[in-house]
Amino acid sequence: MRALLRAIATGNPKLGYSSFFPVGAYVQTKEYGDAAVDWHVRLLAEFDKDVATYHAGLGPRAPAARLTGYSVDDSQAVWVLPGLEFNKGPYWRVYYSALTYAIGRQLGTISITTMISWRGQWYVVHLIGFNS
Length: 132
Known about the structure:
By secondary structure, this protein is of the alpha+beta class. The chain has three helices and five strands. Strands 1, 2, 3, 4 and 5 form a five-stranded antiparallel beta sheet that branches.
């Protein structure tokens, strides 16, 4: 989550790639003909765009943002079986997690639409909504 906030605060999505669902995991779970291409062309491009959108929303003091917390509601996680969501392998998915931050005394929350658990770690898949 620190990496994700750093990416948003600076407007540099590459700083948050460690928080994003890994391409190797995506290839193993999705049944697309070329899942790696879909990951790069669609998912990662959407992540980059969403980081820029959140960065712009933080305003001129964005680089001063510091992480104050985050929440992933494990009780709302769903075990997604093969055949659903275009997947060939199962995974845990949760909607609407949150990252909280402070810029000086101003507190804020960044919503994370979708996260997938891979080998016990939650990763961002969609930051803002479900882009096509």
